[in-house]
Amino acid sequence: MTKFIMKDQFQNKTAIIILAAGNSSRLGRPKQLLEYKDSTLLKNTISEALKVPNSLTIVVMGANHNEVEKELNTTEINICFNPEWETGMSSSVIKGLNELLLLNPDCDECIFAVCDQPFVTNLVFENLIFEYYKTEKGIIASAYSETLGNPVLFHKKYFNELLELSGQEGAKKIIKKYLEDTVSVPFVKGNIDIDTEEDYNKLISE
């Protein structure tokens, strides 16, 4: 259930939309709740997003949403539920972006992030925002392992195309289409995400 919030409190803020709707099928348990840094993977991502000055945080829930939401401080973030999470990543992108446009229809840019990149920090988000204002490019993507990916910032001119994604398509489709309007920002250890028990065991053993 979405909380009602006055739209004007979000004016001129960068939105950080955290996609946390998946059912972690390869892991076999909710990755959002995996313990990490005396917290959880999802709460770690949220806490880093909340450190970004002049931003608002939206979390898109799906599978296991009741169990996951119980662990969160919902006074600091905006939670929305994606009932179509099983159809793929695109439905969560669309749900999060529609939520943002309800809260702040005049928003100029937003960042999409995922909940299972344990090394994401507020500086990763802030570097994207800094590069956006410095270069005035429409897409600022994180660079790691010779690819471009999350977290990624989009100017509002791409919102309509993001809302037209379908199935398993993610924001990377838009990045590839508009490489001439894309700038990359290095994200050290951005290639590390948690999909399997082996990934998680390696993370906590380091």
UniProtKB/TrEMBL annotation:
Signal peptide (from-to): none
Pfam families: NTP_transf_3 (PF12804)
Domain MobA-like NTP transferase: 17-178
CDD domains in the record: GT_2_like_f (cd04182)
Domain of life: Bacteria
Any one GO molecular function term: nucleotidyltransferase activity
Name used for this protein in its record: Nucleotidyltransferase family protein
Lineage of origin: Bacteria, Pseudomonadati, Bacteroidota, Flavobacteriia, Flavobacteriales
